[in-house]
Amino acid sequence: MRTIPFHGLLLALLLAAPASGREIFVDNMAGDDRSTGLQPHNTPEQTGPVRTLAKALRLAHQGDTIVMADNDVPYRESVSLVGSRHSGDHRRPFTIRGNGAILDGSMPIDPKVWEPYEGAVLWFRPKRMSYQQLFLDGRPAVQVVASASAIRPPKLEALQWCSLNGKIFFCVEKTKLPSDYNLSCADEQTGITLFHVDNVTISDLTVQGFQLDGISLGNSARNVTLSGVTCRGNGRSGVAVGGASSVEIDGSSLGNNGLAQLLTLPYSRTQLHGSLLLGNTAPGWVDQGGRVSIDGKTLKGGIEQFPANTERKPKP
């Protein structure tokens, strides 16, 4: 029987071991989608950062890390992670590292579209209205929820808004006009969609202003971790967990979303650790199926907010 020398065995093991994943850098101000994304700064060889997440995902392979630059200017795009090339394993997950950046699906509202309603309240009809959100200076404005039977908007104080009958109503301050404000509404459908992926981590990222969900785990998005993520001001939910999907939500904050902060669907599994579900605009968790545990305790039936003490929960 032939024996393999120790050094030969060591070489074989090294060759069999997976190579470490690459870092692909994205910079929505200084980047260029003609670059390779392999360096954080621009170079004459065009190895510097790309400009968009979409380009970074086209360049990425299994186990890679996408590193976003935070320039205090939101990334305005909607992206999908699909299949094995956007997956990893338990030692080397496919990762999107936000570094505090914002992924924003809203669009500015032209001041000319507003119509007078009553007093200081004005209205306009956005092109998409199944779910909606209004933003003031890039953050969710204060929403007053109209009752299901309402035929007219509820009373609005200055800088409050509501959604009713396919319209957005907004109350301006005295002597001011819509042109005096930086107003925007949800436009893109979903911030990040995950579909048939395994071992994915998304960290230190704010996802806001999308008409449906901030982050949507579609069919079979398994072993996903959301760490230090804020999902706010999305029309339907902050995070939606679909069939045969599993996610750990760690140290994250979900609030100011339209239908639910967290929405779980049948055959899903969700674990939350040290996270906030703010019941300020919608229930903290809407249970439409699946298994959910919060800080190690298995729960059923949904929850209005978590933790229960509202004084501990700043708005995201």
Contiguous uncertain segments of 5+ residues = 9-18, 310-315
Order of helices and strands: HEHEEEEEEEEEEEEEEEEEEEEEEEEEE
Sketch the major β-sheet: 12 strands, mixed
Radius of gyration: 22 Å
Q: Estimate what percentage of residues fall within beta strands.
A: 35-45%
Domain tally:
2
Compute the separation of the termini in Å.
Answer: 66 Å
Q: What is the helix content?
A: under 10%
Estimate the global geometry from the Cα principal axes.
globular
Number of helices: 2
Q: Would you count the extended β strands for me?
A: 27
Secondary structure category: mainly beta
Roughly what is the average pLDDT, rounded to an integer? 91
Describe the structure.
- The protein has 316 residues and is mainly beta.
- The chain has 2 domains: 70-103 and 190-312; 106-186.
- Helices cover 6% and strands 38% of the residues.
- It has helices spanning 6-16, 53-59; strands at residues 23-26, 65-68, 79-82, 94-104, 106-108, 115-118, 121-124, 134-136, 139-140, 142-143, 160-164, 167-171, 183-186, 192-195, 197-208, 213-217, 221-227, 230-232, 237-241, 246-250, 253-255, 260-264, 269-273, 276-277, 285-287, 291-294, 297-299.
- Strands 1, 2, 4, 15, 17, 18, 20, 21, 23, 24, 26 and 27 form a 12-stranded mixed sheet that branches.
- β6 (115-118) and β7 (121-124) form a beta hairpin.
